Amino acid sequence: HIGSLVLLRDVTELRRRERELITKDATIREIHHRVKNNLQTVAALLRLQSRRMDSEQGREALNEAVRRVGSIAIVHETLSQNLDERVEFDEIADRVLAMVAEISPGKVTTRRTGRFGILDAEVATPLSMVLTEILQNALEHAFEQAEHGVVEVGAVRGGSRTEPRLLVTVQDNGRGLPEGFDPHRAGNLGLQIVRTLVEGELGGKFDMVPAPGRGTQVVLDVPVRPEKQH
User: How far apart are CA 43 and CA 45, in angstroms?
Assistant: First the structure.
């Protein structure tokens, strides 16, 4: 016997949902793009204002604000190029390193070892700010004017399969911590931001200790999602 079997399926609803998802993805990317543009505008306005300041302290405070806004803008720029709310943080870390290195008072070399991997946006944004504050603090206070030095950022994915974690270290070979310095009580605005974001936003741990040999080592221990999970 010769015959045929014809299957008919109404895919109208399926195609409608696909179009909605495409529109949603495009909308989210556009939002991140506009947020990035707005943050860059804010940074530009702060730079203009800093140039009009007579106070050196006031100019430096505005320049610090510019770098904080810039670190958030970098995350949104990366998110505007993705289809989901997860980002490859190594690229962001490298750009933060380059941005903060511009304020170096001497010939300080910055570098990254290891990899951060893929992180959720809600982790990437505060972590980029934390990294900015720690690097800025190291480059401003660890070295004398025109002094050669090295600041190294290390990242290791660890923990268990059910409780993955990200261990980040920022180490310099500068002058070291002042005697009696307590990073958990210091009133410096940058360290206050770091403590608030690491312990409050990220649910992680933060410490600042003398580095082996010479200098200072900052240690961050942050819970993350597994990289393969989507």
Answer: 5
